[in-house]
Amino acid sequence: MNKIETVCRNVCEATEFVAIVTMGEGGPYMVGNWGEYMRTLGVRETTLVFPAGRYRQTEENLRRNDRIQLLVASKKVQGSRGGAGQGCLISGRGEIVTSGELVDEVKAKFAWARGALVVHVEEVQTQL
Amino acid sequence: MNKIETVCRNVCEATEFVAIVTMGEGGPYMVGNWGEYMRTLGVRETTLVFPAGRYRQTEENLRRNDRIQLLVASKKVQGSRGGAGQGCLISGRGEIVTSGELVDEVKAKFAWARGALVVHVEEVQTQL
Lengths: 128, 128
Fold this sequence. Notes:
The structure is a homodimer. By secondary structure, chain A is an alpha+beta fold. Chain A is built from four helices and six strands; from the N terminus they run αββαβαββαβ. Helix content of chain A is 26%, strand content 48%. The longest helix of chain A has 9 residues, at 6-14. The mean pLDDT of chain A is 95.
């Protein structure tokens, strides 16, 4: 399943932040972004877009290895095993883009952004 | 700085979830836990404790390489560069323990837990 739908979409609509992991030379490299920023740019079907302020190390990592993982979670979404709270692990390929239509769109909404982190979703798994 | 203090403590007290990354054989491996669960067990000075339900892959990863990273974030905490929202990346060494006093404490609060994920904090950095 590579589409952001049903449960995972609900979690993306509710998560306060997004944890983003790429592979660095020295090991995993984790950064964050705000759920609100992702939602401002729209939770698309198979793509997620984030404003990129710095993300220099993430960019360098993605150039060597474009595998990327995102974790989103919210207590506001009903859990798949009952109880409040659902997480979602989103895996795919990522890139930092610094020009083009998408970047113009990002910069129009986030003046401080130097570009966009674009995630091409390949797999979605529920967690928590 | 290896102590959970000031800004990072505030973020730990507010974060809705915690993203947890270890190094697997095939790349970074990310799981989640709830901030509320971490807080129930107490945000200590240099140690964080989480109830471990499954975490089999995390356990295997930590046996090979005990480096672990956590990301916490909340819009409720004032950001270090102004504006609402602060993140915090916590790095250290982790282990899954399945017996002993600490595990008894975890199981008393989380009957479903098979043990505890214990994180020995070595570095704390603000993010976001």
